[in-house]
Write a structure and sequence with these properties.
By secondary structure, the chain is an all-beta fold. It has no helices and 14 strands.
Length: 109
């Protein structure tokens, strides 16, 4: 609850894989970029595989995950995202980034 973003990828120079982890307790309660992407804020190339995202909240759309950069690419493979039932968009992709959803990825409120 003391981090705007639990995972922040700020470079597109390398591809990163996170496999089999739980990402929890992000609190994007700031302004601008710190108001979304509570679990993951991605400016680079990231694959989340078999990842559970839970107990994270933000003040604006892209509450759980924000992808923001023309060079960014986020792949969600067999992931489960659980967000609060507050009407906000859970995953947002801006500035020409690429979002790939594969396997049995599910998003719940």
């Amino acid at each position: 609850d003391n981090a705007y973003h639990v995972v922040m990828i700020d470079s597109a120079r390398q591809s990163i894989l996170i496999d089999g982890l739980t990402i929890a307790n992000g609190n994007a309660n700031g302004v601008g970029d710190n108001s979304n992407g509570a679990a993951v804020f991605c400016l680079g190339k990231l694959t989340l595989q078999n990842v559970m995202i839970k107990n994270s909240v933000g003040l604006s759309d892209g509450e759980l995950i924000r992808i923001r950069n023309a060079a960014a690419q986020l792949k969600l493979k067999d992931c489960t995202l659980r967000g609060p039932n507050d009407g906000k968009v859970k995953v947002i992709n801006t500035n020409g980034a690429q979002l790939i959803i594969q396997g049995s990825t599910m998003i719940f409120e």
